[in-house]
């Protein structure tokens, strides 16, 4: 929050390195933290409160002492677990034996999807992403289109039977009716079936959006592979 300067010991020059002006302060992200009284004993703000207090007062000696007390308590607790054969199981991290590194259990390495991802938030230490579920909306739109086409086809089939029945003698009515698709034939209709029944496929909007989603999906997979390679 304060100015930071670079002091050149050789020539005594002092250079401004960081100046948190009012403009910089206005651009600062809003900080969201758990209320102090709601934090558990091992959360950083509560655990390091005495060290933080000493630093804010400018008492480096006191801060060092408080830090030593904390670290010594942790060493003693680890020693007791070893003696008792108790295994320490971290809540949010897991150890990778091959790389001998610790990793966050719920890390999400996929690229941000602006069409589907709305916001990312933390709850009980777990990072979660709120999504639009675009694929579900697309599926619903697709179903609506097919249902509308089925309704239109049923109506046209009924009109067809009515015309055939009135135009042909009664003893030929059964044969002529079979030339028109009946509503029963529409049961279990698939996309490909729709093409054979005269539907060219889904509506133009569906087609465009589906093609767009395929392109996005392909791009996301490519980014995921690149990000995994970088992470590895």
UniProtKB/TrEMBL annotation:
GO terms for MF: lipid binding
Residue ranges, annotated region (Disordered): 147-191
Domain of life: Eukaryota
Amino acid composition bias (Basic residues), ranges on this chain: 151-164
Compositional bias annotation for Polar residues: 167-188
InterPro entries: OSBP_sf, Oxysterol-bd
Coiled-coil ranges per UniProt: none
Any single Pfam family the record assigns to this protein: Oxysterol_BP
The protein's name: OSBL5 protein
Organism of provenance: Hemiprocne comata
Native organism taxonomy: Eukaryota, Metazoa, Chordata, Craniata, Vertebrata
């Amino acid at each position: 929050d304060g100015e930071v300067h670079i002091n050149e010991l050789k020539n005594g020059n002092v250079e401004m390195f960081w100046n948190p002006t009012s403009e910089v302060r206005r651009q600062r992200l809003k900080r969201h933290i758990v209320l102090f009284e709601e934090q558990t004993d091992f959360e950083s703000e509560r655990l390091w409160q005495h060290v933080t207090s000493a630093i804010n007062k400018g008492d480096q000696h006191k801060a060092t002492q408080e830090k030593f007390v904390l670290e010594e308590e942790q060493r003693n607790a680890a020693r007791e677990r070893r003696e008792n054969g108790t295994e320490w199981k971290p809540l949010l991290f897991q150890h990778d034996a091959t790389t001998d590194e610790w990793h966050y259990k719920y890390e999400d390495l996929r690229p941000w999807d602006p069409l589907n991802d709305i916001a990312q938030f933390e709850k009980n230490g777990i990072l979660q992403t709120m999504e639009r579920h675009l694929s579900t909306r697309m599926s619903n739109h697709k179903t609506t289109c097919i249902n509308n086409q089925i309704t239109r086809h049923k109506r046209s089939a009924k009109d067809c039977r009515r015309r055939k029945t009135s135009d042909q003698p009664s003893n030929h009515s059964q044969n002529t009716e079979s030339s028109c698709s009946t509503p029963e034939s529409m049961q279990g209709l698939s996309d490909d079936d729709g093409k054979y029944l005269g539907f060219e496929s889904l509506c133009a909007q569906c087609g465009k959006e589906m093609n767009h989603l395929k392109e996005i999906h392909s791009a996301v997979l490519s980014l995921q592979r690149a990000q995994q390679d970088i992470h590895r």
